[in-house]
Amino acid sequence: MTRGSDIDSAAREEALTPLTLKRVGIDTYRENVAYMHRECDRYRAEGFQALAKVEVRADGRRILATLNVVDDAAIVGCGELGLSEDAFASLDAAEGSPVNIRQAEPPASIPAMRRKLAGERLTRDDFRGIIRDIAERRYSKIELTAFVVACDLGELDREEVFYLSDAMSRVGRRLDWHEQPVVDKHCIGGVPGNRTSMLLVPIVAAHGLLCPKTSSRAITSPSGTADTMEVLARVDMPFDELGELVRTHRGCLAWGGTSELSPADDVLISVERPLSVDSPGQMVASILSKKIAAGSTHLLLDLPIGPHAKVRSMPEAHRLRKLFEFVARRLGLTLDVVITDGSQPVGRGIGPALEARDVMRVLTNHAEAPMDLRQKALRLAGRMLEFDPDVRGGDGFGLARDILDDGRALNRMRAIIQAQGAHAFDPEHPPLAPHTLEVTAHCDGAVTALDNLQLARIARLAGAPRAIGAGVDLAVRIGDAVCAGQPLYRLYAASPNELTFARQACERDRGVAIGSPDGIVRLNVEG
Amino acid sequence: MTRGSDIDSAAREEALTPLTLKRVGIDTYRENVAYMHRECDRYRAEGFQALAKVEVRADGRRILATLNVVDDAAIVGCGELGLSEDAFASLDAAEGSPVNIRQAEPPASIPAMRRKLAGERLTRDDFRGIIRDIAERRYSKIELTAFVVACDLGELDREEVFYLSDAMSRVGRRLDWHEQPVVDKHCIGGVPGNRTSMLLVPIVAAHGLLCPKTSSRAITSPSGTADTMEVLARVDMPFDELGELVRTHRGCLAWGGTSELSPADDVLISVERPLSVDSPGQMVASILSKKIAAGSTHLLLDLPIGPHAKVRSMPEAHRLRKLFEFVARRLGLTLDVVITDGSQPVGRGIGPALEARDVMRVLTNHAEAPMDLRQKALRLAGRMLEFDPDVRGGDGFGLARDILDDGRALNRMRAIIQAQGAHAFDPEHPPLAPHTLEVTAHCDGAVTALDNLQLARIARLAGAPRAIGAGVDLAVRIGDAVCAGQPLYRLYAASPNELTFARQACERDRGVAIGSPDGIVRLNVEG
């Protein structure tokens, strides 16, 4: 039907002169960006468009990137192809290498994503295809958001949540500890200061259960468990090093990294977080896929309820629990769900060093150890110990208390800190930030509420978690009687500027409600 | 409650040293990007994150941008703030000006967007707030996609479609022609070669109706009306110049620009297109808001049905028509909907110059004028003429035919071309691309189908619309008998490479189905 010789597309590509790879010192976070000069022959020939998705190949490796068009030859010249820091690292080729570029094929799972967008129920294979493409960053921000919103609005049924969780756990690295049980704990969050993991791990590891705990850093909170643990020890060791350490000490408190375990989760979260989309199905899949990938066989789930926590009512908690239980069973994970009080922060400190101080006070049975943190940790540790087939139901709490009170938990924590790499200062006296300010009650009365969200916001403005010594140190809990002028909490900030920012936030709303004797609750507003 | 003097946040900002504005030669399409050095004090102090949304201010003006963090001082230095081309143009401040930057406040309409995301029905005020923020580019790609998908999946009711259309028509520029009727025409698209507007405008303008037609350029098609008209005349004149021209000649054929009329539409489309989301509500709002903003009082809507057109069945066409009618009535727009045949391309040429040639052949009553294009244009022009209160129902077609046949339409077209700015070559012989190839039938039989999508794809690969002379020139229509070896169409390409790309696509699927005498339909695959 046509004249002339056949040229297949591979040959056509080879016929074109490759471009020269250049590293462009721009950090585009988790988005790969490629930079190409507007006058570049290849750009003109192929009719690329700015913001188009392109495939960049060098030496048999390939990545996908979003194209930015450059008019300044100082950034990239005509024969060059620039890559942002992240993209350059992903392609893993030397500067100056020959690279090829072409329009990216749309991801193979897009038709399945479109069916979800049309409200259809997807199959196990559909979810696998979508999650694989998402983990490989083949989806654009737009496609990713469409998938997330369609799952949220279209409501996944529980079988679909299982498919999604299973698919997510199958991409990326998967750990195998070659023994059972491997216990883990997760809290669905929203409660500042709630650093129970740093108590649970030494208690259950001292008992002998394997507990390779990895945690996240703060994203919107003033501290994640990884940030707080980092006050005491190094947390960012490679998984291989971690394995050895865990086998020796039966536990660790490390940072989970961002993308080795269930990497699709990190990509999905990059969209869910800014939208505050947190549907039950997505929450369950996110949590359980990470645990399965980490090799856990038994999971204790802390589900706090409170007016400013993620879950706000008991019926909601029960529905969520049922969904977690169904999916965990399908995944072969033993699950125990504990519903806890999320109405106020746990412990006194909010911010990395302040929380680390609280944890160490509980471990050392210090006179000022926060009792609420101790009690909650013992309750959860008891339930975890009961994952041990040799521990009788109901015996866990007593066992946990003994391990804490007789110093075995403290010794185990010290060993873990040493093994991960202790920092130079005394773990029992982590360094607090130098600029402080006392925030006081403006009237007599009783504390009727602590606002988790506002207290977290204030701690962040003071510099937490970036400045490890920054944060809020609470002096009161709900129910405490206070007099006008009595301290409610103390702010710790790393710089005068940050102290000012935090103070301004306190002036608008200090996050502590006081019911005065005249029966009027004064809601945080300056008298 | 606190010590120290009060500093409000404006004062705090003023206390910080401003950065120096730098223009960074990177084209980020319609996304504003700000570049900041990682070691910049401001970056560290405020805890910005890469990809965060920031507000950049200079001299009382402000824009929103996405932050990229730079490690290379050659791109931006420590005391500088870089802006991508688009962002720099939007801020409209001189290089070297002092600029301030801060975390962007979330758009005020986000709570309403979240309610849509939760499946709620929104009010008129909700839509106004959302559309205002979208038009000001306050929404991130993620928020924008969430809104679009939520409207699509949640299904807007017809009252909501009216609210959305009305809100869209109220942001941006709004034209007022100070007379009635102001007639316009729109085709919902999907049919290559369908250049009726270039015939309707000269006919109705010659009759005396005011028809200030603006059209779009191609985005996924091989040519938009603006691209085809641009073969003959300049199309990108400013609105003010256009106004004068329209008053003199009663019509124009100009490019609608990208953002002056209903700018929110362009922003929404940037998400809808890559997702191929095209719900009836969004289509109606997009089309009618632009027409209202352009000052139209009467609209003729061409709604083609076909297996590869946007609307594929008569029931679907009727539902869409009812929605258009409801919303148009609420907006105060007189609407006439014509359902047409969209089963194959209209005219012979696909691509700017080939289509311009067809249009000029119809206007000049050329022996090779495509009769289907002529007939369709007369039918639509007749209905438009009946918007004139002095034209009796049923008389339009004859009137239109007279205006076309006696040369008044041609004269009006020539006047409009002159007024807009004619190009150097003869409009009746627009220049075709030099590299050509005939695609022929592989068997005897009759043409049973032309695939609009595949023919459009082939024309694009040949270089249309960028190369104005490139495209496909059809030799057959559905029902034509063909012999093996007989030409089906001719490819025109601007370069040998592009001819190869187009030929390769033809080899996979030439877009023409032939039913052979043995009763088997051979579907495009090479014998």
Structural class of chain A: alpha/beta
Distance between the termini of chain A: 87 Å
- If helices are DSSP runs of H or I spanning 4 or more residues, what is the number of helices of chain A? 19
Instruction: Bin the strand percentage of chain A.
Output: 15-25%
Features of the shown structure:
disordered C terminus, homodimer, 19 helices, Glycosyl_Trfase_fam3_N_dom_sf (chains A, B), Barwin-like endoglucanases, 4 domains, 41% helix, disordered N terminus, EC 2.4.2.4 (chains A, B), six-stranded mixed beta barrel, glycosyltransferase (chains A, B), 527 residues, thymidine phosphorylase activity (chains A, B), four-stranded antiparallel beta sheet, Pyrimidine Nucleoside Phosphorylase, Chain A, domain 2, Transferase, Pyrimidine Nucleoside Phosphorylase, Chain A, domain 3, alpha/beta, transferase (chains A, B)
